[in-house]
Amino acid sequence: MYTPTTASLKRRFASLVYELLLTAAVTCIAMIPAGLAATVLGRIWPPLASIAVCLIIVGGWWLYFRANWQRKGQTLPMRVWKIGMVNRSGQRPSTKEFKMRFIWACVFLVFIPLLAYSVLHSMGIPPKIAASTALFWWILPWGYALLNPDRQFLYDALAGTRLVEQVDK
């Protein structure tokens, strides 16, 4: 039986940097409908506009990742760095596992840092210091990989997925 080998941290981080560039492009595209929603809803009730903008951006991210993961099981950076994603049994993850990975990644990489920034800023801490302090939360999911025997990120461990060496077929 084939047991997939965990992809190296160096390659996964390189893939992650590339992924950040593509996610930034997806965010720019999602900002078009988000801007329209903010313009329309901002006149009605500004908090609703903020919520709509956040949901549209996160929805754009989900569409990007789901389309890539379900079609080929990888995003473009994962294909470039020959990284595949499998579940705990070594099979291609289900849609539910993809969704859980996306949700956990959003929680640790977006929502917790934003919440930390919001709390720090409301305590009177200047925005630059609050932002840089909030970004320390990124250490949690990626630092977990240094302590985990399988070297998986925290959101992969929680979702039941693994990033492994891609075998050429």
Keywords:
169 residues, mainly alpha, globular, 6% strand, two-stranded antiparallel sheet
Structure commentary:
By secondary structure, the chain is mostly helical. It has one domain (9-165). Helix content is 70%, strand content 6%. The protein has helices at residues 9-44, 46-72, 76-80, 95-122, 127-134, 139-147, 154-159, and strands at residues 83-87, 161-165. A two-stranded antiparallel sheet has the order 1-2. Helix 1 (9-44) runs antiparallel to helix 2, helix 2 packs antiparallel against helix 4 (95-122) and helix 4 packs antiparallel against helix 5. The longest helix has 36 residues, at 9-44. The chain is globular, with a radius of gyration of 18 Å. The two termini are 16 Å apart.
